[in-house]
Amino acid sequence: xxxxxxxxxxxxxxxxxxxxxxxxxxxxxxxxxxxxxxxxxxxxxxxxxxxxxxxxxxxxxxxxxxxxxxxxxxxxxxxxxxxxxxxxxxxxxxxxxxxxxxxxxxxxxxxxxxxxxxxxxxxxxxxxxxxxxxxxxxxxxxxxxxxxxxxxxxxxxxxxxxxxx
Length: 165
What we know:
By secondary structure, the protein is of the alpha+beta class. It has one domain: START domain (Alpha-D-Glucose-1,6-Bisphosphate, Chain A, domain 4). It is 24% helix and 40% strand. The chain is built from 3 helices and 7 strands; from the N terminus they run E-H-H-E-E-E-E-E-E-H. It has helices at 18-26, 28-34, 141-164; strands spanning 7-14, 41-47, 54-62, 67-80, 84-92, 114-123, 126-134. Strands 1-7-6-5-4-3-2 form a 7-stranded antiparallel β-sheet. Strand 4 (67-80) and strand 5 form a beta hairpin. The longest helix is centred in the C-terminal third of the chain and has 24 residues, at 141-164. The model has no long low-confidence stretch (mean pLDDT 93).
């Protein structure tokens, strides 16, 4: 049996300078404002953005029927400001103890550890982002969540950039 690596790759252009888009990924307070799909909030974002540094993020959703939280932990593997960021991501509980993705309802094929690679480049004050999430299949809810999050990032970065002009 062959193990084929699956990934989602998303390219986006933001009407904001590269330093601002970098901060959106690395400043916990800014990250909390855009990360996650629509309807989710991010009450916790702990980030030691250094090689070997840890990250822990909580996404939460409140609805009249139920509330749900999902915790993620990871380690920064590459930090090359403001151009490249690489980190691992695993599901965990609120203490940071890793848990299996299947215990959170993910399919059996979902890996315990995924990797997020963010590459940024700037042209004429605008930033191109290429994000690859290795281990998350194209066309899945995870891929859709990224798209929704980047829509929020575009609005936030655009408004912050125009406010600074």
